[in-house]
Amino acid sequence: MDDALMVANLVYFGTLVIGGVLLVFLAVATVITLVVAGTGQAVASVLMATVRALRGAVLEPPTLAAEAARAEYTRQAVVAKADAILAAQRTVLTAAAKAAAAAPTRTGAESEDGETTDEEVAIPVAASVKPAPVVTHMRPTPTVPARTGPRTGTQPILVVSRAS
Question: What are residue 40's phi and psi, to 5 degrees?
Fold first, then answer.
């Protein structure tokens, strides 16, 4: 075998081996970092739960408070919408009644078959009343759960805050 070819092969395969070793090192370092971080979160969560239990704090899931606040907001929104609809209908009916009372009346002197009758019937002229637009502006009430902070699914969060 030629010396130049052997040197080229050694350099090529040496580069591949060094790259592979570096890749394995980075993968192992990442796994170790994740294990250390998870262990730290677990220890911090256990310590915080223990401190809260010793202080006598009631531990309740934040979802119950958030669900109750969301249900109350929905109930208030439905009631406000119904009130707005009823107020708009009341306004339209009041305007129509006022327009009908103030409208001139015409007499109907013909019966259904086209013959003139002796009786005069007062027929109110139909008032063209447009319904008032219903405009409701509701600002959503912010729901404040028992525990604030970012939600990351099932993983506990390590929160560093002031010493208490």
Answer: -60, -40
Residues 6+ apart with CB under 8 A from 117: 109, 110, 111
Question: Which residues, in sequence order, are bridge partners of residue 107?
Answer: 122
Nearest to 70 by CA among 137, 145, 153, 154: 145
Give the start-to-end residue ranges of the domains of the chain: 1-59, 60-159
Rounded Cα distance between 100 and 94, Å, is 10
pLDDT reported for residue 16: 95
Two tokens, residue 98: 């006022």
Could you read off the pLDDT of 114-145 as tens digits, one per residue? 555 555 555 555 555 566 666 566 666 666 55
* Burial of 77: CB neighbours in 10 Å, binned 0-12, 13-18, 19+: middle
Contact 149, 159 (CB under 8 A): yes
Residues of the chain with pLDDT under 50: 164
The structure tokens listed for 110 are 């013909």
| Residue 164, pLDDT score | 47
Strand partners, 124: 105
